Amino acid sequence: MTKKGFTLVEVLVAMVLGLVIMGFGASSFRNTVQRQPVVQSAEKVNQVLQQARSYALAGRKDCGICGCTGLLADRPLIGWEVAMTSSSYTLRGLCGTNPLAPTPFYTSGVQSLPTGVVMTTNPGTAVLFKPLGNGTNLNSDYSVVATMPGVAAQIVSVSSGGDIKPPVWYP
């Protein structure tokens, strides 16, 4: 007479292997969840930089504030600026004849980063995209690093010519 089924040892080995595999999966899932605020922050910063660049390339401005008549009284578009702090960013459209004292015609309001995410910028705290493909106010490449200390970091880079590289993991 033959018995069909598994021995107790076989069942225990299968259960241990299953638990080990589930442990690795749970650890990987936990790491992914912890890094998600950094990924979202870097992507948001990338999107607002792309938006500012797009608006500047198109020469987009508010005619009610800056004027669009073609007369000397019109204030030219200075550009679109993304200003950043360690915990937020703001998009602004600027026009005027004096770049040191521009007239803002659009402000997105302060956009805060998720709790625990810190943003560092180098050099400076703002990028101005000049209108109609005239580059930026940068003398060298600009980097924005979104970090959650002890968890992860991603970097977004802007060249002095205005090219934006998408977020990548930062060592």
Name the features:
171 residues; alpha+beta; 5-stranded antiparallel β-sheet; 4-stranded antiparallel β-sheet; 2 helices
Account of the protein in words:
- The chain starts with 7 loop residues before the first helix and ends with a strand.
- With 171 residues, it is an alpha+beta fold.
- The radius of gyration is 25 Å and the shape is rod-shaped.
- The strands form two sheets. Strands 1, 2, 3, 4 and 6 form a five-stranded antiparallel sheet that branches.
- The protein has two helices and nine strands.
- Helices cover 32% and strands 30% of the residues.
Summarize the structure.
The protein is α+β, with helices and mostly antiparallel strands and 171 residues long. It is built from two helices and nine strands, in the order ααβββββββββ.
